[in-house]
Amino acid sequence: MLGLKLATDPRWVNIVESNIEEILTDHAWCEQKAASNAISLVTYNSELEELVTEMLIIAKEELDHLQLVHNLIKSKGLTLGRERKDHYVNELFKFMKKDGSRKDALCDRLLFSAMIEARSCERFKVLSENIKDPELAIFYRDLMISEAGHYTTFLGFARKYADNIDVDKRWAAWIEFETSIITNYGKNETIHG
Asked: How far is CA 133 from CA 32, 67, 85, 99, 185, in A?
């Protein structure tokens, strides 16, 4: 469904389970960054009423997810650590086109966002199906469904607002690029690591 070419090795969950505090901290900051991304899309595209409306919904959902993760951290007697850099997202960011029209830049920002949501969704699925903690399995299954919705929203808006871009061709390029970098990840107890 997501179009990703490389699936996460389920053994990644063994790494995650070795440090639940780290994965939950990383996850919390991923949710914060996702909310900030949605707000940035509002800030730079305030004239696009439908986009603004949907991005505000997504920003609120991402903040709700942040609160859920924080509550889970507290309930497990853990601590929310400091913000982490997301090297995967930083690599994806470098692939984003910075030239062309404002609409072209918006389209690529939406595809960038869709890619992050797609991989997050896929990782949450792997967690939900393989983690031994039943509470976390249910938690990640619910979030997987939400991320899938965000992925389709971002992809849909990219198609809607594309001017001179063949979105399917550009999305295929995003998938190829993501495939080339994802092999470097899946070795750490972070959502994208």
From this structure: 24, 20, 26, 46, 23
Element housing 153 (H / E):
helix 134-161
Residue whose C-alpha is closest to residue 123's, from 33, 7, 29: 7
Residues 46 and 44: their CA atoms lie apart, in Å, by 6
- Give residues with Cβ within 8 angstroms of 42, minimum separation 6: 51, 52, 55, 56, 59
- Residue 26 near residue 82, CB atoms below 8 Å: no
Taking each continuous run of H as one helix and of E as one strand, the counts in the chain are: 7, 0
Q: Are 9 and 176 in contact (CB under 8 A)?
A: no
Both tokens of 134, joined, read 């039943």
Query: Tokens 């899946």 sit at which residue?
Result: 186
Question: pTM (2 decimals)?
Answer: 0.95
Residues 78-105 have pLDDT tens digits of 999 999 889 999 999 999 988 888 999 9
Which letter does DSSP use for residue 99 in this model?
-
